[in-house]
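Notes from the 1:1 (GR / supervisor)

We went over the backlog. Supervisor wanted to see one worked example end to end before approving the batch request, so GR pasted a single chain during the call. The sequence is below; no edits were made to it. Supervisor asked that the structure be written out right there so they could see what the output format looks like.
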Amino acid sequence: MLRELLKLSEEKASLEKKAAAIDARLEALLGGASAAKAPKAPAATGKRRGRPAKAAKAPKAPKAPKAAKTPKAPKAAGKRGALKGNILNLLANAGPEGATVKDIAANLGVKTQNVHVWFSTTGKKLAEILKVGEARYAFKLPTGSSLQPEA
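Structure output shown during the call:
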């Protein structure tokens, strides 16, 4: 049994040498031909199938350090709850017709989306704010107030 194994392994080695020689001859013959015309050789056993492995990249030279940028002035963060006070003041001054979200954002210098979000979260919890139209809000004065418009 040991002799048979030895004989088979020698035969396998000689066949692999013949296959390598055939591959070399095919390479030489098909070297100038286009890949479309060349017949594909059967895949050799033990080789990886699929997309070929990426070639190793040469190491890059180290980059020069970048010049230090001048730090930007930090954005002035508003006081906590300042948006609420500013919006309520604007609505109180706008009167019973109210103000649009676009006008409020322009007067306060904030994004319109921030004002929309404020009304949909904080604003809806406040009883003194009324929605009087599409994207239009008004300040509801307390009943019995002398500033309440006459109906």
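Supervisor's comment: The CA atoms of residues 68 and 75 lie 20 Å apart.
Batch request approved.
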